[in-house]
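Design review, sub-item: ligand-bound model
Attendees: FS, YL, KQ
YL presented the inputs for the zinc ion complex:
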Amino acid sequence: MDARIIPSEAFGIVIGDAHIIRNAGGSAKEGLRSILVSQQLLGTQEIVIIKHTGCGMLTFTNEEAHAVVSKKLGPTAAAEIATLDFLPISDPEQAVRDDIEFLQKQSAIPKDIHISGWVYEVETGRVRHIE
Ligand SMILES: [Zn+2]
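KQ shared the predicted structure:
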């Protein structure tokens, strides 16, 4: 979701190469619906998880996010999203590993689908492969 990252420029992707599923924190959990549509209905064969340094999702906890919503939008809005997990992260590399594990546990993701994880360094424009 980060506005500093333009996938076509950062990763050399051109029109027709890939489905880009973006969300706050690059969450596979949040993206699962789109991942399944991409694979099962549209035939993609690989999943590449990319998170990045300097991510806003590193800067708050679930409790802090809920407190901000409550303060800004009031108790009705706060109650409506009381069980929402904002999916904050504390370490991009570990979050990539967690998402890979999450996807590997999904019966809806076939075992022959290649999944890789990367961290994009906004400071340098380089990507690190996460084992
Ligand atoms: Zn981010």
